Structure prediction request, 426 residues.
Amino acid sequence: MQLSRFSKKQLRVLGWWLPHSPDCRRDAILCDGAIRSGKTLCLSLSFVMWATHCFSGMNFALCGKTVLSLRRNLLEPLLPVLQGMGYRCRFTAGQRQLTVALGGRENRFYLFGGRDEGSSSLIQGVTLAGVLLDEAALMPRSFVEQALARCSVAGSRYWFCCNPEHPFHWFYREWIEKAEEKNCLYLHFTMRDNPSLTPEIRQRYEGLYSGSFYRRFVLGEWCAPSGAVYPMFSAERHVAKELPPGLTDWYLSCDYGTVNPCSIGLWGYCPAEGVWYRAAEYYHDSRREGVQKTDEEYYAALCRLAGDRPIRGITVDPSAASFMECIRRHGVYPVIPAKNDVLDGIRRVSDLLQSGRLRFSASCRDTLREFSQYCWEENAPEDRPRKEFDHAMDEIRYFVSTVLSGHPANRPAFHAAALPRQPGAK
Prediction:
């Protein structure tokens, strides 16, 4: 792990609760801003230091969108730093409990996932001395407010961390705009607030995004998307007149439709370039053609598209249960139900387009047409693309989110960085 000093803003987060701090009378702290800006590590480290300094034998909550993301994004970088500072840490996976001790003090930190509205029931009943909500803007309001309601111990405080979303988001309206009213210390982070990032790494991240994703992830702004969903797409950069030789790792992706269009894509990987190619497609619009097709007819079209290539799997719209069953009955191709988180999928596709790791055969004409027509919904209260010209766009997203997210060729080569112990830190 690379060690680096703390920035002034990170030091403020680490010590805001100390008696000599001008912020010590605040009831909460909220850190938002750019990705990789160092806010999560310093906030979680400060949370544990505060809990250990002020309490013993108490319960605390660490909350993320899922327990898995919480362990990956928060615990994995945090635990080595705590252990290096002399804290004794023991994680019990079955109970989702982290026990942290220093000297004669010991506290319990329980992990909770706030994935959906039903998650609020998971945290009911527990009494807390404090709660840290990582990715707070991705959790439903009912879960966040239930977590805050559990903090009934005298001296308890709230800790929030998030990346920006839509400016009409409830969390922005209720906490960022009302930070002073709620006696909350609000700190906005940029990548320059993380001294462990070199200028070269900052430039790499700045080159990954464009449009609203650049404003959110790099500039840390709460902004609404507008215009094209994929403004970085260009025919010059992303369209191939001829496919390179030696494509491997063949997959198919499908957005099924009877009245709506059915789109199926054929994908292959070029090891020499590190690029995934959409080599061919099948696209049937029943309204345009005046003919509706059956599951068996779509399956026959899928087989013609695959040809004699060794297909490793077909990722299909999870709502297309009958078509998935049709493919399974034939027993030729493995079926992979698609992950269908729209915004997360759009971000993944945007990353690959920006880095040049997705390209498209010029023969995929309906895909190229949809790229030019796929737009954000205007004046919507939340981020969502318009539900039109989105069938090839959906199955491209299925392929990227379901297949490429775990494929070895698509794993990023970024490394976590830890921060050093500061003199006098407890």
